[in-house]
Amino acid sequence: MKILAFETSCDDTAVAVVEDGNAVLSSVRMTQAEHSNYGGVVPEIAARLHSENWETTLKKALKESSCTIKDIDYIACTQGPGLQTSLLTGTTAASFLSLLHQKPLIPVHHVYGHICANFLERNLDKIKFPALVLTVSGGHTQMHLWLSSTDIQLLGTTLDDAAGEAFDKVAKMLGLGYPGGPLVSKYGEKGDRRSIELPKIYLKKDSLDFSFSGLKASVYRLLETRSEEVDEAFISNVCASFEYTVGKIFEKKVERVLDRFPEIKQVHFTGGVSANTYLKGVLTTLCSKNNCEFLTPKNIEYSTDNAAMIGAAAFQLVKNNPKIAKIQHIDAQSRLNLGEFLDHHREAVKN
Ligand code: KG4
Ligand code: ZN
After folding, report:
1. Which end of the chain is less enclosed by CB atoms within 10 A, N or C?
2. Ligand nearest to C-alpha 169
3. For residue 139, which ligand has an atom nearest its CA?
4. pLDDT per position as a tens digit, 26-63
């Protein structure tokens, strides 16, 4: 089964062809470098570039997969959440192709896409339920209990900033550029992880939620009050200490979940921040101590936003309920909730 998938929720225009839920026949992404001039994503620029780039991205994805639209069984796209004007390009293009070529269309939730990124380039039965999924991106920091392919329960979420957002803001304060995650990681490798004590905000004793605004604010105060030069050695120490603190927070929260749900045998780390080498190392060590298998997307390109993960997610949804795929037009939903999205999906299975 071949799925042509679109992902345009933020600043990357991405199109992929995925076969049988795991084989990536092509995964093309056009990144929007223009945003780096502004230190963050500018929605108007993102919308303009998506509409300029989607067709070229689609043609490239089809060509690289050696498919024509005739070979495609289903079309999928991110319905939400995300920037409304960015989502619109993907939902409109996918709906247009669905109606024009009479191909059933599957709407996908963006976070469900990140969660399903771990199916890519792996045997599908490699994923063992129940699993804990830690999804960390520019917009989300969430832990879910993954009970079966389309049954997912939210355990905890960020009360303020997402961890990826904190990476981006710290990079901006240090004048490193955008997106900040890979740059903080690069400098962090050269720094001393214990050099600066930053607040590890664990919240209440049994809380599974996250909070990163205090951590971000303390980096801000550190820089505001510094009288000596902000040189490369200092920047490296700030980045290393920041990553160390985020690692400690993830470690604590994952430990709390494993204590509460001893039946969990796999821990999944997904979303843009799961491209981070240091954090992957921290979680690998923690999982081996707890006799859990640690899984993260096979390829860094599947950690950050991409369309292949949307194809993998659409496969799970349609396998569970073929009726959800229809020749249809779908609307973008900037505030789509994952629980409601999957509840709706389960209701459709019953009817
Ligand atoms: O999943 P994603 O591509 O987009 C959203 O859904 O938000 O995640 C983007 C986020 C950005 O905040 C970026 O700084 C962060 O992922 N990121 C990283 C790394 N690569 C990307 N954070 C830490 N280390 C990295 N290597
Ligand atoms: Zn994302």
Report:
1. C
2. 1
3. 1
4. 999 999 889 888 888 999 999 999 999 999 999 999 99
Q: How many angstroms separate the CA atoms of 220 and 224, rounded? A: 6
- Out of 137, 141, 176, mutate this one to test ligand 1's pocket (max ligand atoms within 8 Å of CB): namely 137
Nearest CA to ligand 1 atom 14: 181
Which tokens sit at 1? 């089964």
CATH number for 2-116+302-350 (one of 3.30.420.40, 3.10.20.740, 2.40.128.90, 3.40.50.720): it is 3.30.420.40
Residue 175 has which token pair?
A: 């004048």
Residue 268: CB atoms within 10 Å: 24
For the entire predicted model, the pTM comes to 0.97
Q: Ligand 1: which residues within 6 Å by Cβ?
A: 10, 137-139, 164-165, 167-168, 179-182, 185, 271-273, 275-276, 304-305
pLDDT tens readout for residues 180-196: 999 999 999 999 999 99
The first and second tokens of residue 96, run together, are: 């247009």
Residue intervals in the chain for CATH 3.30.420.40: 2-116+302-350, 129-297
Indicate which atom in ligand 1 lies nearest the CA of residue 163: 12
Ligand nearest to the CA of 7: 2
Q: How far, in Å, from the CA of 139 to the mean position of ligand 1? A: 9
pLDDT value for 344: 85
CA pair distance 115, 267, nearest whole angstrom: 11
Q: What does pLDDT average to over the chain?
A: 96
Is the pLDDT reported for residue 200 higher than 80? yes
**DSSP-assigned letters across all residues of 92-113:** HHHHHHHHHHT--EEEEEHHHH
pLDDT in tens, 65-87: 999 999 999 999 999 999 999 99
CATH code for the domain defined by 129-297 = 3.30.420.40
